[in-house]
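Why Flavin-containing monooxygenase? Reviewers of the renewal asked for a concrete example.
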Amino acid sequence: MEKKQVVIIGAGISGLLACKYCLSKGFDPIVFESQADIGGVWVKTVKNTRLQSFKGSFQFSDFPWPSSVTEDYPTQPQLLDYLKSYAVHFDLMNHIQFNSVVKGIEYLGPSLQETCPHGKWKVTVENSQSTQVHDADFVILCVGRFKDFPNVPEFDHGSGPEVFGGKVIHSMEYAAMDHDRAEEFVKGKRVVVVGFQKQALDIAMECSSINGTENPCTVVYRNNRWKLPDFCPWGIPLSYLYFNRFSELLVHKPGEGFLLGLLASILSPLRWGISKLVETHIKRKIPLAKFDMVPKSSFSKDLRSGLLSAISEDFFNRVETGSILLKRSPGFKFYKDGILIDGEIKPTQTDIVILATGFKGIQKLQNIFVSQDFRNFIARSPNFRVPLYRECIPPRIPQVAIIGFSESVSNLFTSEMRCRWVVGLLDGKFKLPSIKEMEKDISNWDKYMKEYGGEYHLRSSIFGLDIWYNDQLCKDMGWNHRRKNGMWDELFEPYGPMDYPNP
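Here is what the prediction returned.
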């Protein structure tokens, strides 16, 4: 039987995995990468960027980290070397076309019915020499949501960057600079960083290291969030509190039966207690109360919303010494010499404003599709998350998978499971249910994400429910979803990529 022609867009972590598993089943995939190298978001980062996840949970199931990497949280160069070694080991580089920008994908075939149609995708690719159109039976989108399409706040006329006499850039532009140029850009300058997630913290730390107290870095942010100074609250690894089967018994899960639902309700006080345990540890390690930074939301909510990030204890040392200034406010306005923060009378004078305000991942995903109908399926309205069955398949867009768009405790680990599942689908190991059944399953996950993530459900985070999610993938593929030896280990030992080396 003739094998399907598979096109993969993006050669970040998900794209490499998709290519590797397609090759393992005899497919001949083509990978189009817009950059000159593999690695996706890891190609260009702030100098001091490290992996937030423990390396043991952020590794390929059949290609562990080399013994030369002794750090638990490797640096960006170490991670890139690891990804390149993986690509070379599995001979992936020959299947990747670099500096190739996909301008759009267009579906040609019968209208979408309850059964899967058999059309073709036309993939338009542009490089420095030409524009070509490639045919594909199936397209795997591995474009990520934290890259290329910066989210820039909107301002009223006369109060935006246009009136500011200094420079305004997005964090994406800062990360794209080589390290020497980035240092020169902020050296001796008064810098304001807008945002309080991982990239904002990394940039603020770098600016404070360069300029010290002479030109402190001001961080402007909206909401207090729980930050982890370490991953062992009160000496207990966080994975034993949130990433084993027992921890998942404490929450209501999509598609659960009556008994599991009843058990989650009975155990809800324990869920609250574990969250409080972690919160007390964090407040003991970093001076949140001193700086009026204790979040209103629970630690558990921030974790399950995918809003959690690590923070160096040295960050608050720098706040104490004055090389980092913190300003919490719902907004600000630009003026000629700086910004005026809401609620303050005195303007903050500044030379550079760096907007670490995230990315428009949904818009980026929409723009790949030529069809307006398909664009509408991706984003029905601002209040709906991208509808993906098993967080991979858009039910109303045929012959397409989207990998790496929803978040998890270890995006590499989760992307690997998803790629194995998608390739199993392509290889005929199982079939998709009807569109109606897929949309019902998506609705169940929507309910879970709204219950535990609240207004942040659009992030499509499966944090803290990774095992339940992987169980579903395993069952679809015909794998045994219980991977541990013995009931005790099955219930209390954390799960990781090395639990899934093979079916």
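The first strand starts at residue 6 and ends at 9. This is the kind of structural detail the renewal will allow us to pursue systematically.
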